[in-house]
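subagent[fold] <- orchestrator: predict structure for attached chain, return tokens only, no commentary.
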Amino acid sequence: INAEYMGKANRASTPLAAMSAVRESGEPNHLATVITCHCWNGNHTQVALCPGNNEIHIYQATGSGADRRFERVDVLVEHEQLVSSLDWSPTTNRIVSCSHDRNAYVWNFVGGKWLPSLCVLRNFHRAVHCVKWSPQEDKFAVGSARCVSFCVFEAENNWWLSKTCKDQPEASNLCVAWHPSNLFMATGTTDRRVVVYSAAVKGLDRKNLVEPYKVMSCGDVVATYQSGGFVHAVSWNQDGSWLAFVSHDCSVSFVPMVPGGQVQVVYSISGSLPFASMMFLSPTALVAAGHDCNPQLFTLHGNTWAFERKLDPETRQQPAATSDVQDAFHKFERQSSSIRSVSNKMLRTRHQDSITCLQPVAATDGRVTCFSSSAIDGRLYLWSI
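subagent[fold] -> orchestrator:
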């Protein structure tokens, strides 16, 4: 089925429209049926999210802490298929979005309305998985199957044009991240690698010395690191001294940014499930979350990273236990019925399904003191550290 047909089907599909509706659950944090990704504006008063379809919903946040409420104020519709990633530049107040329809848009707030600008993505033949603004907000990175690029604005044509990196991986790029210097970007792939590219644009960036990398021609590969599985998230810490990435083998890997630095692989606890997202809280602290539905904290001790603790105490009450006879009765009852029954079992964590995205909300002296998490359960929670 081609992308054009799928795009038309998505826009005309009643079930997809219903998925974007907010559940009447009475929970102020329950914003959609599914949340695939989210991001905040510069002063953290508005949040943009994708409710599991081709739309971008913008909510106004009021109050603080447990009393925070969200009111939907806008819906952006330009993509034809699932919006897979969002990022909101804090200074220039622009939203960049990418989708499975192989397109990316930059949204500018003009005259009280969000207006999209087309990004010309060359050599993109599959769904676009990830997008991220650079620290100076003058370019952004995008990743797809067998293609990773960064886009710069061309004023004479009034569009964003992609510059394809060299030595493209023979796999999908699931995540991208920028070095604080604005000169390098990293991408995590499904062939179990993290690749660092030179992203210095002539006439736009100054080629400063950044250890341990050498600034090369734009788009050249400067470093490659191996992982134990699909790389779901990658990031540098605030001062650029560590590079971290999470893999599908339930690990978090840390690379010191020194010549000859060796990769440190850390696992949380026995029985942990893979992480899907992560972020640095400070140069010496990192939080990761994913299929365990519980954010987990990792900290640096000397030159060694280690698992610290889970952030959700898992105090939610579960439904009362039933007897073996009742369980057997319900099992046969479900098997004899043609209608699928939905289990009412609740997890002890706040999130009831896999966490898909983590974003900073507040910081003090360069350390994140509050971050947000969104999940497949359609909830968005704030965590104070």
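orchestrator: received. Logging for downstream: Confidence is low (pLDDT under 50) at residues 1-25, 336-343. The first strand starts at residue 37 and ends at 40.
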